[in-house]
Amino acid sequence: MLAQSHPENKKRLEILRSFGILDSGAEKSYDDLTQLTADICEAPICIVSLLEEDRQWFKSVIGLGIRETTIDKSICAHAVEQDDYLEIRDTRLDDRTRDNPLCAATKQPILFYAGAILRTLGGWPLGTLCVLDYAPRALTELQQRTLKVHAKSIIRQLELTRALVEEVKAARPETDDPRPAQALSAHHQKAEDRFETLTPREREIMMLFVGRSGSLSSKDVARELGISPRTVDHHRASIMSKMCVDSIAELIAVTLKTGILR
To answer: What pairs with residue 55 in β-bridges?
Structure first.
C-alpha cells in the first residue's frame, strides 16, 4: 500500500506537518545516526525518509545525493502499514517494488530495502529510517535491531524538538525574572557569549527558527527574508556551530534556559 492509502492519511499528514520538520536543513544529530546506521548495516545508502502527500522528503541522507523523490519512487510508502519493520531482500521479486523506477533503473538499480518505521508516541507512521543496497541481501539480527533502535531515537528527537518549539511559542515575552548576566550560571554566560559572536543576519534567522515563527523550514525563513533556502541553510549551520549545538532541539533548549532572545 502507498502512504496515501493509510486509513487516516489526512490525519497522518496533519501530524507529520505539526513537527515542522519538512524542508528543514541538515542537523548533525540526525546525520550522525544515519551514518552510524549505514556503517553497522554495511549499506551504501541510509535515509531518514518522511512521507508527504505527493513526495518523500529526506531529513538525512547518506549515499544518494538527493533530498526528495516523487511518491511513485518511494519504497518507504509501502512500509507505513507495517508494525515496525519492512525488509525486501530482492526488489526485483516483490510486486510492490519490481516496477519502481529506482529498482528498475538500468544503471545502479536499488535491489535491497530495509526500513524501520518512524512511528510517533501516538502511533502515527511518519516515514522510515531505511537502508538500501545495489545487490540483493538480508540484514543480520543485530543490523535489524540497530535499525529499529535508531528509528526510535529519531522519533524521540522529533518529539523533543516539537515540544520545545511549542514551549517557545507559548512563552510570554513579558515574563518576569529578567535574569541579568551577573546572576546567570557559568553555562548560561557561555551561551550568551556565544550568542554575541553571531552576525546580525544570523541572529535574525535564529529568532525566526527558535522564537517568533517556531518554524523549522528553511524555505519559510528564506521566503520571509527574501533570500535563498541554500543561504538560510548556510547561516543555520554557522549558528549551530557558533552556539555549540548539534540540533535545533538543543538550540531551543539553550534559548529557553538562558532567555537570550527575550
So the answer is: 70
Rg (C-alpha) for the chain, rounded Å, is 20
Q: CA–CA separation, 244 vs 195, rounded Å?
A: 10
Indicate the DSSP class of residue 187.
Answer: H
The one-letter amino acid at 130: C
Which tens digit of pLDDT belongs to each residue from 195-253? 889 999 998 888 887 765 455 578 888 888 899 988 988 998 899 889 888 877 778 77
Question: Which H helix or E strand runs over 51?
Answer: strand 45-51
d(CA 154, CA 190): 28
Tell which residue, 209, 205, 126, has the closest CA to residue 165. 209
- pLDDT tens for 77-103 read 888 777 789 999 999 999 999 999 999
Of the candidates 145, 143, 25, 15, the one whose C-alpha atom is nearest the C-alpha of residue 80 is 15
Helix and strand numbers (H, E) in the chain are: 8, 6
Q: ∠ CA(104), CA(105), CA(111), 5° rounding? A: 60
Structural domains for the chain? 3-166 (3.30.450.40), 177-258 (1.10.10.10)
